[in-house]
Amino acid sequence: MSMLEIEDLQVYYGRIHAIKGVSLSVEEGEIISLIGANGAGKTTILHTITGLTKAKSGKIVYDGHDLLSIAPHKIVKLGLAHVPERRQLFERMTVEENLLMGAYFRTDKAAVRYDLGRIYKLFPRLNERKSQIAGTLSGGEQQMVAMSRAMMSQPKMIVMDEPSMGLSPILVKEVFGMIKEMHDLGITVLLVEQNANMALAIADRGYVLENGRITMSGTASVLASDDGVRKAYLGDR
Amino acid sequence: MTIFLSTLMVGLRLGSIYALIALGYTMVYGIIRMINFAHGDFIMVGGYTLVFTMPVMTEKLGLPAWTGVVFAIIVCAIVGVLVELLAYRPVRKKGTGMSALITAIAMSLILENLAQAIPAIGPNPKIPQVIFPASSLTLAGITIDTTTIYTIVVAGAMMVLLTLLVKKTSFGRAMRAVSENKKAAVLMGVSVDRTILLTFAIGASLAAVAALMYIAQYPLVFTTIGSSLGLKAFVAAVLGGIGSLPGAMLGGLIIGMAESFTVSYISSAMADTFVYLILIIVLLIRPVGILGKNVREKV
Ligand SMILES: Nc1ncnc2c1ncn2[C@@H]1O[C@H](COP(=O)(O)OP(=O)(O)OP(=O)(O)O)[C@@H](O)[C@H]1O
Ligand SMILES: [Mg+2]
To answer: Which string of DSSP letters, residue by residue, matches chain A?
Structure first.
């Protein structure tokens, strides 16, 4: 059974038909990239997975749970974390408070402290800045906090929405390095990106979303060498 | 000098009561960006609960009268939760800011009317029993009645506890998270609805304590007791910067002091005028209030 299975998903915003029958699946241990232009519906799909947006119809099953019938705030407890678009940190809280929010529902306080220490060891920069107000961090640091915050929930799977958005090439590399490290820890990843080059380089498989529909799917290498994909998303002329 | 010091103590006492009430306005505003106009009426609910439960505590159980505050806290918390659950939440999920505002005004009137409709309450004011037996303390040449001291100490302790709760506990973090970014809070596993409910319960409980302290000084309970008291506390919350907890505390103290000093040194008729004058001047200089920030919710 797949880790995540989406079947014939339909999502509306009022009369706007944003997602028009999307089906996709993510197997345990995979990195899947979902690429598409602005307004294709990538964020809508991730929001529907974690309950921030309601679906009209369809099915989303994660690890045997029917996500469309679970209260949104209970989804992270199933081991599914969401690193949202534009990071959405708690900007008036400190870095450490943000990280602790990631572990909000956990009751194993000692283990939470241990995980916090691990994150600080992994990212000494966050350790130096743990008392800094998150809203005053640089974009790259904020992304680091957003991803670490998700790690604090001990996820089995993470969905990530354009983690490279607005970052310099060096920082983009760093972020993708982080995604690799998460994957090495056994975390399954569904990655939404406009940076198709990097996204397909890291992924096992990919899906192309256009106007609320999946128009193409396949192994990352096949997609990366497809002429249509190269023209539309990889900047080939 | 003695007049100055005793005026200061009265200002502190009034101010700490206003601060306790202002905290309720500011907490609810911080989390749902709505002015809970029914908050003042929680004082009335607390006041009547005290009127009816204190005799039981003293006569049946032989306990001090103030222990009735336990019931006042419970009843106020329940009423606060019910107001949110039955009125505000359904309107918030459907309507606009304007419909929420109207609902809040309506809830205030409904609570006052409901109270009047209860036969045991009726239209005439009730006189509660003596809460703290009259006694006084002489400190550094001035005489202070013990009620004043209790009020300042208890209100101060409540404010310290609330600050610790919000700053240091996991629930406090969740409250701030919901206030800042509801969607992100949900992604962290926070139940937004439950957090809002608890915020109402806490705010209403503080109003119950304020009710005890207020009627210990002015022993008269009537159905509109909360409207003028609530309005002043609301002014305090706005003055301090609505949404800010230290702002509500500071605003409460300033209003209490202004009132006390105007009464002592100018005229009691001018007290309200000065309170509002201060508000207008501060808002002209700092539209968000003394400690307020420009709160903006991310969507
Ligand atoms: N809250 C909303 N109300 C109405 N329409 C919306 C809302 N959110 C998104 N849409 C519309 O739904 C469509 C899909 O939007 P979505 O944000 O999912 O796209 P996206 O692929 O994430 O784009 P981007 O790459 O720019 O982030 C767009 O046409 C958008 O205008
Ligand atoms: Mg998007």
So the answer is: --SEEEEEEEEEETTEEEEEEEEEEE-TT-EEEEEE-TTSSHHHHHHHHTTSS--SEEEEEETTEEGGGS-GGGSGGGTEEEE-TT----TTSBHHHHHHHHTTT---HHHHHHHHHHHHHH-HHHHHTTTSBGGGS-HHHHHHHHHHHHHTT--SEEEEE-TTTT--HHHHHHHHHHHHHHHHTT-EEEEEES-HHHHHHH-SEEEEEETTEEEEEEEHHHHHT-HHHHHHHS---
Question: Which residues of chain A form CATH 3.40.50.300?
Answer: 1-79+155-237
Contact A84/B at CB under 8 A: yes
Task: Calculate how far, in angstroms, residue A229's C-alpha sits from the geometric centre of ligand 1.
Answer: 21
Q: For A1-79+155-237, give the CATH class.
A: alpha beta
Segment B219-246, tens digit of pLDDT: 999 999 999 999 999 999 999 999 999 9
State the complex-level ipTM.
0.96
A90/B177 CB distance under 8 A: yes
Q: Which pLDDT tens digit goes with each residue over A112-129? A: 999 999 999 999 999 999
Q: Was domain B2-285 assigned CATH 2.50.20?
A: no
Q: Tens digit of pLDDT for each residue in A64-87?
A: 999 999 999 999 999 999 999 999
List chain B domain ranges. 2-285
pTM: 0.94
Nearest-CA residue of chain B relative to A107? B170
Instruction: Please answer yes or no on whether B173 and A104 come within 8 Å at the CB atom.
Output: yes
Average pLDDT over residues A182-195: 96
CB contact under 8 A, A105 and B180: no
The mean predicted confidence, pLDDT, of chain B is 94
